[in-house]
Design a protein that fits this description.
Blueprint: H1 2-44, E1 53-61, E2 64-70, E3 76-82, E4 85-88
Antiparallel strand pairs: 1-2, 2-3, 3-4
Length: 89
């Protein structure tokens, strides 16, 4: 009987732990997507997200690429994105 309860406790800990890790991963992904929005707000003022359009994109390597973004009321902006961050070209 003790073996059954020990097995049940182990399974419960595994499922709760994986659920918490999944919740943390979802939160981190949401917060990291907010970084691009905050960079664009600082650079171009308060713009609406649904009006941004990616015109061109090309991969430089597996972790970096160059993007051309059309910002309403502004010119075309070239962004270089890598694992270290984003820069306006």
């Amino acid at each position: 009987m003790e073996v059954f309860f020990a097995f049940l406790v182990k399974l419960t800990i595994i499922f709760l732990g994986s659920g918490l890790v999944l919740l943390l991963a979802l939160w981190v992904s949401y917060e990291s997507s907010a970084i691009a929005r905050s960079v664009l707000k600082l650079e171009f003022g308060n713009i609406q997200e649904d009006k941004l359009k990616v015109l061109k994109h090309e991969k430089v390597s597996a972790q970096s690429g160059v993007y051309e973004v059309l910002v309403p009321g502004k010119d075309i902006v070239k962004l270089f994105s890598s694992h270290k961050g984003m820069k306006i070209v």
